[in-house]
Specification:
The protein is mainly alpha-helical. The chain has seven helices and six strands, in the order ββββααααββααα.
Length: 180
Amino acid sequence: MVMSRDQNAKQSQNLKTDNSSFERVKQFKYLGTTLMNQNSIQEEIKISLKSGNGCYHLEKNLLSSSLLTKSIKIQLYGTIILPVVLYGCETWLLSLSEECRQKVLENWVLRRILRPKRDKVRGEWRKLHSEELNDLTSPDFIWVMKSRQMKWVGHVARMEERRGAYRVLVGKPEGKGPFG
């Protein structure tokens, strides 16, 4: 994959080495993360949310079982679904709309896990409100994500000065940038 500001630069040529030829692609999957030549994180977040949704549907019978207590269901949620959705989140820079999408998925899954609640006054069943979900589950997606990002920044800050991640963090990249 070639990353360039000029999107039309040599799109059709393949890379050739001794006896091998490599196809030029716009994206590929590496260690569970989809790398793209546009360097866009939005697609990665969409894939992450779809994976979390799929993970919930795989474990739906277990998570909606009436044999398990709410605390066990919340622990299973934190052990099974949360890591799938937040894989690689240390390098994400989320906009407000993407944070909202993360929160929507989180509330959707939790509402299905914890089931409707019977209103004591009216005696009717109702879905749990967002505030009630926040009270029942302590770490939400956004908080966990930001804490992981801060841990990653601390890790990078302790790196040697010659490492690329450290140079980017402190703003000392090597080489020349484009004019203008």
